[in-house]
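My main concern about presentation is that the manuscript never shows what a single data entry looks like. Each protein is reduced to its one-letter sequence and a matching series of backbone shape codes. For the editor and my fellow referees, an illustration may be useful. For illustration, here is how one protein appears when written out as sequence plus structure tokens:
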Amino acid sequence: MMNKRLTPVPDTPVVTRFAPSPTGFLHIGGARTALFNWLFARGRGGKFLLRIEDTDRARSTPEATAAILDGLTWLGLDWDGEPVSQFERAPRHAEVAHQMLAAGHAYKCFATPDEIEAFREQARAEGRSTLFQSPWRDADPATHPDAPYVVRLKAPRDGVTLIEDRVQGDVRIGNDQLDDMVMLRSDGTPTYMLAVVVDDHDMGVTHVIRGDDHLNNAARQMQIYAAMGWDVPIWAHIPLIHGPDGKKLSKRHGALGVEEYRAMGYPAAGMRNYLARLGWSHGDAEFFTDAQAQAWFGLEGIGRSPARFDFKKLENLSGQHFAAMEDAALLRELKAFLAATGQPALDARQDAGLSDALPLLKPGVKTFPQLVEKAHFILAERPVVPDEKAAQALDGVSRGILAQLTPHLQSASWERDALEAAVKQVAEAHGTTLGKLAAPLRAALAGRTVSPSVFDMMLVIGREETLARLADAQG
């Protein structure tokens, strides 16, 4: 079977698309597919289009569509133009089916479901292929009854369909393995297989980058392209994502939806970086920016084997992105995280404190909840209530030492060296060390046993707040 191929030349604009079905959340696998399409288009100055495949009216919901758009927006995958509704294009799909009828590339089939099942039962009994061969394929239109019918593609029954795939290589499927698929149902509505081809053609899609579970669909869809005389897009069928155990990613492996990763507090840049590395590579590069990913991404870098999701690698990359992120951008993302997870917005004091403290908060942080916990000394309201472990550091002796430390801090120059000298002096006067005195001091200032340096905290919250918290801790 011969098919026209689209061979892009340098000035041919690249057009990719992401085409999710709005029947639930944005799956992590779908997010990676969207990312690959986005990177390929953006790196070549092309267009990245979005199509909502909402032809399954029973399962498609506005809420799912909104969740998909929200997930893509959070990931930073911007699309060109307005999202296309596949359902709204049904008249155009039907128009193409009728063009194929008129040209002899399709036919009306009046076989009933009972007749089709009877054919298959007999085929099974005789050990033949159960692919339905309609008796109406070559019937004289004059013999057509006045009855409901479907429109079937008149597919070739011999020869081979060759899928030239940029990831899987050349894949050959015998045409005797493909049936005359239904393109229009008896109620006149188009099937998914027809709609996809018509939409991709009309949207000018040059590269179809999608999961390899669609590989067999490509063979059937190519027959529609051939019947209509349309250019076939470049195929790139990418392996699915597996869990750490090598089995298809599922709920038992953990979170599946993009919104779950957002709620867990992974930064969008870290997610983009990690998803790009799931099944694609550029040398030994692990950490990279969006600009680098767009410049480097190519279909030749996609492997044929399923990628395995690894939370430790995701956390590691997220940590690197936290460290590399500019403070202003990080503060914006933190505010968005708090809003998305239903947490209180920052007030002016907290906002200013975080702006000053982000350089000392970022190291070692891998998620926004970790950042929020590390910033507890800024976010907490007076009186700061220590957690159970911190409260143990505030015994009677420690409270007494803090009481004697207070006047030293009142008169100290509010600089790190002076503060450290004042605390060290009081510690030595009580026969202890600066390190041991830091524990009750940390409990008083942060209410935690783990926090940034006590001197960093003092400098961030200032003299007045420091002294007030010490007074609160002394009871």
Observations:
- The longest strand covers residues 47-52.
- The two ends are 87 Å apart (CA to CA).
- The domain at 20-85+241-315 is CATH 3.40.50.620 (Rossmann fold).
- Residues 1-9 have pLDDT under 50 and may be disordered.
